[in-house]
Amino acid sequence: AVGVGLSVGISGCAVFARPAPPAAGSVSFSNPLRVPPLAESTVEDGVRVFELTAAAGSTGIVPEGQTPTLGYNGSYLGPTLVAERGEIVRVDVDNQLPDTTTVHWHGMHLPAAMDGGPHNPIAPGETWSPEWMVDQPAATLWYHPHLHGITREQVDAGLAGMFLVRDDVEASLPLPHEYGVDDIPVIVQDRSFDAEGAFTGELGQFDGVLGDTILVNGTASPYLDVTTERVRLRLLNGSSARMYEFAFDDGRPFDLIATDGGLLEAPVESESIPLSPGERAEIVVTMSPGERAVLRSLAPDADLNAGSSSFDVMELRAASALDPSLELPERLADIPEPDASTADGERTFELSGHNINDRQMDMGRVDEVVTVDTSEVWRVRNDNPLPHSFHVHDTQFRVLSIDGQAPPARLAGYKDTIALEWNREYRLLVRFEDYADPTTPYMYHCHLLWHEDQGMMGQFLVVEPGQQPDLRTTPGGSD
Ligand code: C2O
Ligand code: CU
């Protein structure tokens, strides 16, 4: 699967071994899948309040020994937060780590000061309490640190969790809804371990850290006991660099029902779904009593880093008698056609090396200024033959076209992160609503976390019409 592009990208450098999981068929699924607990919350004066404490711990993942890890309210990953559309939420984030961190709500529409990007640091021993109204369609979002330069390190150590938004539309549909029973979070990460069980990870020259062991929700060699005819898997590529193309070992089709920003218009029958780091997909799989099916990753052609063979992720084991599930609906949600004529402007983003538009991230420089309650066309292109993706904070965009063609059905819904194949032009319709703040920027960046840490990120302000913000507003400027 190492394509033509690779030799172009390497200058005079020998090919070196990239960690790859064992070939499909060689994992014996021996550990029950861990399911992150639902986060507890209290309601104070109409505000739903969650508490997250980031701290170091150790976790039993592999037989070699306990793995030193980081987690929220536990030793690895974090609880699943659930909020209803229309609720005001507050999250009290207590940093008990020895280092500064941030918590970013990936995919959430919210004010920049609550976004948890690099400008919202939480010093050791401090608590940060962002509060906002959840106002977007039901979706599988997630949270993770975002401190500039050490995002990969903190995420790879275990700091990540899911944030589910629910709404009336989704609740009224005959979909699997029971968390941990037929509605399952599936956080997929690749890691490597040393002889004592500690994480290892050498920075590859191109992608960042790749691992040879696939974890789901922090479980190695996982299996899931399925007790219902249909099971909904909320897939999150929580890896820092690896691309996946999720499929089943027997090629069985499944229904893709939602992507990053929520439900698709209708279920899309699929045999595989590619996800780059940060992307999500909700799929519904139908099982027969007593059967087993292995979720695996195929080696997609466009992928430079998944190795040349497919590899296993998780086994589904159906009970000998399954509780009945409802038929999937024919329609899921109203998704308006994206209309480029509503755009007020157009910008271009070229990703190359570790740069976007030939620049590296500078905390003190605002790269783009957009006007609140407008839409724009963002033309995004990956100019070098390495895997990159593009993620925009605060908003869910629509894909207008890829190289002039309408996007495939799997990219026709709301998205906040998109894999960028080399040398293609992605036209995105991006909308900025509700929240203007002339002093705190949002981020756009490649979601391969090491690329992001290396500076493949830029900052944009959302301002009121006519407002002239200071373009060097924030600390850390150096240019
Ligand atoms: Cu998932 Cu800017 O991040
Ligand atoms: Cu990248």
TrEMBL record:
| Database matches in InterPro entries | Cu-oxidase-like_N, Cu-oxidase_2nd, Cu-oxidase_C, Cu-oxidase_fam, Cu_oxidase_Cu_BS, Cupredoxin
Top-rank taxon, per record: Bacteria
One protein family per Pfam: Cu-oxidase_2
Its keywords, alphabetically, are: Metal-binding, Oxidoreductase
Gene3D superfamilies from the xrefs? Answer: Cupredoxins - blue copper proteins
Q: Where is the Plastocyanin-like domain?
A: 64-168, 212-288, 352-463
Q: Name one GO molecular function term.
A: oxidoreductase activity
Record-stated family? Belongs to the multicopper oxidase family.
What is the name attached to this protein's record?
A: FtsP/CotA-like multicopper oxidase with cupredoxin domain
Organism expressing this protein natively: Microbacterium immunditiarum
